[in-house]
Amino acid sequence: MRTRWTVLLVLTLLLAGCTGGGSDSGTGRVTLRFQSLAWQEESVEINKELVREWNASHPDVKVEYVQGSWDSVHDQLLTSFEGGEAPDVIHDASDDLADFAYGGYLADLTDLLPERLRADIPQRSWETATFGDGIYGVPFLQEPRVLIANATWLKEAGVRIPTPQRPWSWAEFREITEQLSGDGRYGVAWPLKDPVSATLNLSLSAGGQLFHRGADGKVTVRFEAGDEIVPRTVHDQVGKDGSAPASLLGSGGSDTLPGFFAGRYAMVPLGFSYRQQIVQQAPEGFDWQVLPAPAGTDGLTQGVSPQTLSIAEDSPHREEAAAFIDFLLRPSNMVRLALGDWMLPTGTRALADPALHTPKDDWATGTALAAHLRPAPAQSVRGYPEWKDKVATPAFQEYYSGAIGLGELRERLEEDGNLVLARYQR
Amino acid sequence: MRTGTAGRVGQYLALLAYLVFLAFPFLWLVSTAFKSPRELGSLHPTWIPQEPTLANFRQAFDEQPLLRAAGNSLLAAAGAALIAVLVATPMAYVIARHRTPLARAATGWVVVSQAFPLVLVIIPLFLVLKNLRMIDSLPGLVLVYVVWALPFALWMLAGYVRAVPVELEEAAAVDGAGRLRTLVSVTAPLLAPGIVATGLFAFITAWNEFFFALVLLKSPEKQTLPVVLTHFIGAEGVADLGPLAAAAFLATLPSLVVFAVIQRRITSGMLAGAVKS
User: Fold this and answer.
1) Which of B218, B227, B240 sits opposite A40 (nearest CB)?
2) What is the dotted CATH code of the domain comprising A145-292+383-423?
3) What is the third-level CATH fold of A15-142+305-370?
4) How far apart (Å, rounded) are the C-alpha atoms in residues A392 and A376?
5) Which residue among A72, A75, A281 places its CB closest to the CB of B38?
């Protein structure tokens, strides 16, 4: 008898599940689905708040907030696109857009976006989301890689503190980390779980390009003098100077924080937004500061892949979606989004906001770096994900751990790499 | 042959090591769930939180609709388990008792179907469900879970059916019971532990499943618990560790409770001595 009741209950609940949901069809009201990848408490709240504000002021265009996840966004979007069920407004990052843009899944925003927004975001940022002749995303948040430093340690060691105006050179950085090391303590800890994007993005400062586009539009890999500086610095810090622990090379940024707080590492190269975790987790009285990453022949230049907002090609309400993006990215709203994510806005008016120039939590140091951010070198290269996974990641990992030398690194990146890229460029 | 004291001690030590191996991640999860962000950033983590806090639970509930997601997961998992058992039991009986070419082919197909990776089936499955207008619906997800769990459930149940001596059914037939009566009164009760174990397997598989739920459900109000848990993970794998651990701890509880309640029914030796061999 009891079993029968259980069966009945489950079936009833299932039926209840069937009848949920609903649509606005027939009411003449447009409903847009906005899939956001915001995940930190403040950021989720601000995104939801902005959606509420939009809905309150636009009764004819209702926006539905859909929570996505960075962890699975690519697979989830790919399936949604294939099935014609993609959200109308899509939050992602510019380095994830190439396949979707070339695959025809994203709408070309060139004629959809208002002039205000086009003019507000610098051309170098637009380039991160430009594929072929079209713009497939609005870049709106970005973060430089910075050195988060134990301020007390650096002060006591008496080293020169770099500023965006007078940064360290890569050679100086290496010397200083060596000077700071000893007795089981290290000048720097490199969390290089994803060694490729970190290396390539930082290499722009030393004039590294790695990917070279020929007159025929085809891209080839060439590992030249400028590309060597950053990898060699890391390699020597780990293998020769003993100023960076080898044990952390495979770690993510968060994994370095306990050692950083415990005074094992003087500096950790991390994304600017890691400050939020540091504020939350640092022991009381721990004095930390943000320093610019070292500079090379091209100064403080580094590559970034900004977060983007795109519109699905299949969306029947592209104009409304573009209007919503325009609303989200009004300067004041962009500032709110930036503060919520602890990142920098791409918009010039938002970037000028005093809230982002305060010395508190070293916002000002990061903001001063914004002008040096360029599109990550590889993101528009077709075949980059495969090159990265199959060739570059293992090659860099082996080089950093000392298993192979610079010659073999070059050989693998170029020879194996060009074979992979050639398949995508036939 | 009697096991010596040293052997017995060794056995218990091995068992203890295995228990520690199994319990370690869960206990660590519980410990993490009650730690403050500052303690989570400590280089020397402790098992017992030094300043236990419920803030992670509060934040997890504030940020994500955990209860609603748990309700959806429960519906999907219970529905899938129930239907999988209802469908698999008669099929397993036929496969185990009737050794026809068709039964052999079905068994082969069950084995082969296990070889298909998830990524291979997800897009065709998505399109099929879309045509059936079952995308973004819990019944659609239940259907997928049933299909996904069915081969293994069938395989498992067929083993249980084979373990029921056919002589018992023959004895019932001799006593005048018809086929249906035999099945209901003799075979089914003896299969109960197997059915429960299979249901449990289907339930836990569906309860923990992530990818189908991620791809097939669009509306936030229909998302299941594993999907909602990923919302605590940010770009480059950075996680909001405290709330994630708190939510993950809560998410494991139903599985544990279901298992604790049901495991008593998975008794062995019910058939011992049923027939002389």
Assistant:
1) B240
2) 3.40.190.10
3) D-Maltodextrin-Binding Protein; domain 2 (3.40.190)
4) 15
5) A281
